[in-house]
């Protein structure tokens, strides 16, 4: 890439925010170059300033208290950092286009998709309505719309997440830019869709000669798509270079941590297999037994139309042994969260049986619920929404202890402190409310609340999905420690297969409300029997830069699942 | 948006001032509010009568000060009963759902089908004019908005992760509803109650203006506006000052409501 | 077009509401202590008139049977006779609908014409003096009692511009329009502040939204961002607000009609209450309630048209 002409050259870009106490630096002298046709991966965790950097480039600072304090941005040799608002506006879209993480919120909900593409075409290329529409249809075809003339008139909410992201790419392309800034374009998507979108971006680079800055928190994504990697932290660019160099020989400690935290890297300590304490030949009574479970929800329906139902879980059977760590994986809508809730008696069962420790939920509901409430607990995806915002962590924990009555009232304060120690939170956190905690700290509090029950079973529903990778790794390590020291049974639900592989002994793969495959993690990941599982595994962005990105070739498996 | 304490301070100062006036009216009012001075009819504002006098020779300033007692009472009582009734009904309906909820929602739909003032007037027509009738009508009609608001909030919070967590931890239903859901749900109603206070104040004054609420010779701002109506072009002061009092008091409630909304992050 | 299918099915859902409305109005009037026939006909009713009403409304029979007669009469369009006007209630109300309708319509139109530009001006200059001015105005405006504003307008115009009529309605179209100016300005001064507040808030929200950021990121000038992306998105919730406020608006017309002596339904209601003309009170309340239901229905249609995501 070094021989290609430079397209963008940024030197010492600095952004400050005006506060009462004075100016604070958010971006600290960031410098980087982008060659023509290059894909540059910009990696960092939340708060590293990677998104702000890209917005600063095109003069779209998100607040009026932010200021571009110094630096130059040379676009084809011309400094645009000090350009007038009008000049910047002419550059935005037409020369530097952007796509964003959440297509749902960035697409205009009340304007037809086609019109949003036409808007860009007509404005930047000065075409009349008819010509612009023809051009828009052509762009829609390019980004993978199957039936552009019909889909032209649809609204954003009528498309799936993947198609919305394609629509956003189409809208960016409508302005015919030379550089595309993609801000976490696949974070909100399922892994198979993610692969398709990344594939599309690479394809567009080839056909249109686009230069791309790809912002992401996922090193796996950059490893497979980018030419060079830049790592940002706390508003500074700490390392930049060829992707192979960075991945193999990172210079900075932080980059090393990032790489080590990536779930696809085998953890240095205890792989999942080491957790198996006893050979499973010993006949144990299952702690949880699920037999042909169906969960259906009513959808729509009213006075005149017939009630329709949606089947979230359709005929699932599963046994979980005491002390086991089971991972349930699947994409969004696969029914894995519903299964978790059904397991804990939190959602009505339509058909089938759930048995906990010998009590059947469908036969002796009250008795089983009593057992579940005192011996099972759940950890949720969004740590902030799962804690009562008005109560301090200490109040939340002591309330659970009081209700559960397993600890005498006098011992509650000591027990709260012990729980905080257990999840490695400072004891002073007892006096703080969820809002003042970071995501990782909050999730630790959520785990402490679950432990307050002194449960035998913990169901963790996507409990790391909302966290940064280094924090994810910490929480996984904490769960691993708890499981090995406390005689816990853990059901770990995730869409991230790599994490499950690192943590769980057994894995259950769900698709469309059914289990398509289950078995020991090692076996399933090494030799998936089902095409769907294989596709899921193949779509995980891997660290190996030489492995091809599998997106387009993804076989959509038949539901019955013939062996691949 | 950052909370701006200035709004809260201004609002609270205005409300505090009116409370003070209401409490001290008999002390600070220069004249008896219903004393008719035949010699001083329709006097324009002067140092003797700061706000002038009406056609019976009553001192407008004294009447405005005494009016604060009644109008403040209208706003407070007219909000308090609907707030409590509506919150309890809405919380129970939203939390337990089922048939009772369905019936209550239909009842709310029906009550909301009537224009607020029309239903108030119809009830007052039956109970007979007067402040008591107004309060009864208010309690019968006003709870609806609070019930709807709380119910909607409870329905959302009921499906929140922390409600789910509370269920999974074995908390009782009453504990979940009253300790975990209601305190989080009530913020919106609190903000609404401030704009509702404005509505109640205006309705009370309007009904009194129409002659169906507070009865003369009692000093109430709506009544005073009505009494000054025939003289508006000759003696503007009779209507101007009581009206202004309503506007300023209402402004105080609105400011406090705005500030609370910003502080609690509630959008109406 | 199946999103609009509710236009056919929704009216069926009105039936229980209208039914409930009829129960409430029926119960309200029957709650009045004393002989219902005397209550309905007034103190000076002739014995034969009382006998007539007793038969027509089944007043000697149990209460549920009375309601049945009431409903039966309602379906025939008979709501009894007004004791003050000595004519049937329904034709009486019919003559009063036009002024009220005209007043409501002109007030809403005026309010929208004031609110949209003001809200846009404030939202696009957020934090500047003009924004603060609009915000303070709207906070004040909500607390303006219509009956007082009306008198102040009369006072102001009597001094500054004594041509506008301050009472009555007129007979020719032009005359009527002139008579409507002051009353609709009175209502619009309050209603527009409510709309202005909500519109401004929605516009500010959408100006900060991802949709606006995305439009700016593709080089759209601020005017296109505002008029093509922000305004259409901000309008949908405001339609709903207008519908919610229709009851409040009708309340406003009741008062304003009384101040300006406009012969509409509001004035009829207030006079009927004073005259204890309960048949008329009952009739007007019912007609107002049905009108509110109808307006909410129209607002639903408008909301569905403004926001393709809404399904009813």
TrEMBL record, chain A:
GO molecular function: ATP binding; ATP hydrolysis activity
ABC transporter domain sequence ranges: 8-259, 288-537
Alphabetical keyword list: ATP-binding, Cell inner membrane, Cell membrane, Membrane, Nucleotide-binding, Translocase, Transport
Primary localization: membrane
Gene3D superfamilies: P-loop containing nucleotide triphosphate hydrolases (3.40.50.300)
NCBIfam families named in the record: PRK10419.1, PRK11308.1
Protein name as catalogued: ABC transporter ATP-binding protein
From TrEMBL, chain C:
Segments forming domain ABC transmembrane type-1: 97-299
Places the protein is found: Cell membrane
A cellular-component GO term for this protein: plasma membrane
Stored InterPro entries: BPD_transp_1_N, MetI-like, MetI-like_sf
GO biological process, one term: transmembrane transport
TM spans (from-to): 12-32, 100-121, 133-160, 180-199, 241-263, 283-306
Source domain of life: Bacteria
Classification via Gene3D superfamilies: MetI-like
UniProt name for this protein: ABC transporter permease
Species the sequence originates in: Xaviernesmea oryzae
